Amino acid sequence: MDFSKKVIELRKAIRQFMQVHNNPHDTSKFNEIADQLNSLDQTLKGGRDVTPTPNNKIDASVGEKGTNKVDDVKVVQQLLNNHGASLKVDGDAGPSTIKAIKAFQAKLGTKNPDGRVDPNGFTWGHLTASSSNTTDNSSTTPTTNDTTPTTQTINKSVGKNGDNNVDDVKVVQQLLNDHGASLTVDGDAGPSTIKAIKAFQAKLGTKNPDGRVDPNGFTWGHLTQKAVKKNQETAKPTEKSNTTEETSSRSPETSTSSEETSSTSVTTTNIKGSVGKNGDNNIDDVKVVQQLLNNHGASLKVDGDAGPSTIKAIKNFQSIIGLPDFSGLIEPNSFTWEKLNKDKDDHRLDQQTVSTGDEPIPEELSVTSKITKSVGHKGANLPEDVLLVHKLLIKFNLKLEESSTVTVRLISAIKRFQKEYVGSRNPDGRIDPNGKTWNTLLGIGRIRGGIYKVAKKFDIEPAVILAIQAVESGGNGFLADGRPKILFEGHIFWRELKKAGKDPAALRPGNENIIYSKWTKANYKFGVKEYDRLALAEKIDKIAALKSASWGEFQIMGFNHASAGYSDVESFVEAMYKPGANQLGGLMGFLKDNNLLRHVRGESKNWAALAKGYNGPAYAENKYDIKLERAYERFSKILL
């Protein structure tokens, strides 16, 4: 009995020692003693059957509402014992086994433990991962390796509410250790790992650390970049860094702008220090970043000053490449730097299938594209509709994969789109057929890639273009039947009839809703019913009628066809039936021909002047200028 007491005391001492070293499950340093003690302990407690080395495989689920094959249950029971449980390994998935499973799940941070272990599931992965540590007896010190992991990639998210594949968690844990953490690299994304992720994010300046690392995300980019930097600290550079060479080459398009922008050619392919918010901001480095941002559509003066406009451009670029947090800081060899320095051509056009010229619009963005039922939170969620929504949201750099199944990630992506692009204050995570979210998804999707080239050519921000589209056509310039949206203006028809040599007053009786001398919104029917008004007007005078309606994405009046670049109104109308480049071309032609671009260039924008020139002197009645400004402010946060 004295021997038994000594065994128990020794076992407790070893447990305490391991707990001090932050890993009560890792018996790798004491495996021989631990196996003996475990066997002795079971004998002392009544001769329970012990299987020290279980097969790390189960064929079916074990636990509450599980299949509970005897051999599978034994494997799980033994693994639970390896994690501190005291179960009899008898193959009976009774209350004690289920209770042990729930206790283990609770340790992993599971909010609602279900008491079941599924093959290849989350609980199984952690059971076997930590259990496998017993085969590693290479060290007698806590496992906080300083070695570089064999892989610098993760397949899925790690941390709070993450996928937490064991191998991915191990990679993140090792990288966190490279940054000063003291984690055991065991693949367990428990509280200590989440806490370490949050601490690392806080160091990066993240306002609200979420404790999660996403593949190619902001946190991941900094984790890997810093780790590489640490491994290279012992090696002294043998060559001087490239110098910055500048050649002034102002383009004709920007020569009349109120703010000078440089088309400087930069040969440097790296930066020495960080650039942007709270960065090192060496002048030469800042110039390199400013020029690269300009190559991606910004309109910065390349002056080496990392001021508010440069930081804003960095944040906008980080938004476009899909980072969840926009730090406004670029570090050497970081994820943002890699994307920025990828190509001097607009990299976004590689990711987005939209019209920038004569290329065809993809089927999912066609003017007749539609969903038959609602998709998302509390939606009907027909598989074909869900798949179509996935395809469209992917074009906005939202991290989704094509699928016909509704997931939490899809609903989150819908809510983000509603908040950022639709301007919803309370996103509901659902897309309804022909609803505002659906129309915005299609409308912006058709032109989103093209606006970068157009905006750069005319020296304005893409957010200006999207603001005009949002206010003029509600985000989509086409009806569900594929025809362009129109709004027929009876007071313009009055004027155009006069120009055609006809007396509008004499024609007014019986046509009061399409012929009147002063503007009023009382006669608007909106949607498809506007075509009924147009048809009545065409019977009186077709050309005058076409000139009296506004058309498409940007609701350009037919009588402005020449400004939009068309010799006659009929060719203009024909072009407005096609989405994409024709819509953008018409808008920019109108803005340029009417000298309106000057109002939206540079930091200070005159929205009232733009509104008056675009919509006439009565713009204030509908708060047109205020709507434009608010839409611009929303889009400028997510786009360059």
- The helicity comes to 40-55%
Shape verdict: elongated
Could you tell me the mean pLDDT? 79
Count of helix runs:
25
Described by strand count, sense and barrel closure, the largest sheet is:
3 strands, antiparallel
Distance between the termini: 77 Å
Rg on CA atoms, Å: 32 Å
Relative strand content:
under 5%
**Number of self-contained structural domains:** 5
Structural class: mainly alpha
Strand order in space, largest sheet: 9-10-11
In terms of per-residue confidence, which ranges show pLDDT below 50 for 5 or more consecutive residues? 19-31, 45-54, 130-150, 226-267, 343-358
Number of strands: 11
InterPro entries: Muramidase (IPR024408), Peptidoglycan-bd-like (IPR002477), PGBD-like_sf (IPR036365), PGBDSf (IPR036366)
Protein name: N-acetylmuramidase domain-containing protein
SSE map:
Layout: H1 2-20, H2 31-44, E1 62-63, H3 70-82, H4 95-107, E2 116-117, H5 122-131, E3 158-159, H6 166-178, H7 191-203, E4 212-213, H8 218-231, E5 275-276, H9 283-295, H10 308-320, E6 329-330, H11 335-340, H12 348-351, E7 375-376, H13 383-394, H14 408-422, E8 430-431, H15 436-447, H16 450-458, H17 462-473, E9 486-488, H18 490-499, H19 504-507, H20 529-540, H21 542-547, E10 549-551, E11 556-557, H22 569-576, H23 581-593, H24 607-615, H25 624-636
Antiparallel strand pairs: 1-2, 3-4, 5-6, 7-8, 9-10, 10-11
Helix pairs in contact: 1-2, 6-8, 14-15, 16-23, 17-25, 24-25
Biased composition (Basic and acidic residues): 230-243
Region (Disordered): 45-64, 109-165, 227-282
Organism: Aureispira anguillae
